[in-house]
């Protein structure tokens, strides 16, 4: 239990009120349905306050910036790919998501953050693409190139929920710019998500209230960190609806849209 | 028809202006006082014993939140 303004409230209610505080203070902060990862936007993150079982809600940049990058220019190069001094192309490195199975591997850029800087990412829902391979009209065999259909995934009866995250402080060595960036931890897809995100069969690690608190505040072993990071939110508590392909440009990106020739999801979990 | 998103109410020290906003699908009320007090933002919250109460956003002005919140509740009851 927590107290807000001296009134006894549940943890969930406390989080809601703290979230509302931030939304009021910075009006356009949470009042958005769509966060597109590749825009490297600022997102709402619950960040533990050091030494207390309490948190602050802050804005962080989605896209974990490794400590070894010295300038924004180097960050840009990492995110977009570049030619090195010998003319060899170095492909981009995407740090939006941290794969739970690799979180604590020695030498991984996420290891230190997973041990020391765990956070929760607030979400009202997220987007994934379902790949459908159309059949060749002559042979009846699936074509090599899939048609892709976007889905919006939410948690039933919850207006928002928490994803496990890890964060990193970073300072541009030239300009002095300070930024906190984060990655969302991902796990193996559950029965719903393996149909939706059927190309990679992964999903964000969504945590319930208790696991969320343990993730942020718990004095947990490496084994327990990996256990929580691998949490699969129950498929029967999630829902997915197909949305328009141009959802990123429309006013209501989460509005349901039925595509022809797309088989319904199987919901017998 | 009276505007239920922006209205005036009488508090004992004078009139207050109330504006209703939606923030992230949640409703808040912003109150502007006729005296020199800073504006107040309030919202309904749920006590751990399941009853609802008015609270200030951010914390710190609970008494004012309850006083003004009660007036807002009474105002809306007139439309029932």
Give a structural overview.
- The complex is a heterodimer of chains A (269) and B (80).
- Chain A has helices at residues 11-25, 72-80, 111-116, 193-196, 209-217, 222-229, and strands at residues 2-4, 7-9, 42-48, 55-62, 82-83, 89-90, 97-99, 118-123, 126-132, 147-155, 161-171, 178-188, 202-204, 206-207, 238-242.
- Chain A has 269 residues and is of the alpha+beta class.
- In chain A, strands 3-4-12-11-8 form a five-stranded mixed barrel. A three-stranded antiparallel beta sheet of chain A has the order 9-10-15, with no helix packed on it.
- The two termini of chain A are 33 Å apart.
- Chain B is an alpha+beta fold and 80 residues long.
- Chain B has one domain.
- In chain B, 20% of the residues lie in helices and 45% in strands.
- In chain B, strands 1-2-3-4-5 form a five-stranded antiparallel beta sheet, covered by helices on one side.
- In chain B, strand 3 (26-33) and strand 4 (40-46) form a beta hairpin.
- The model of chain B has no long low-confidence stretch (mean pLDDT 85).
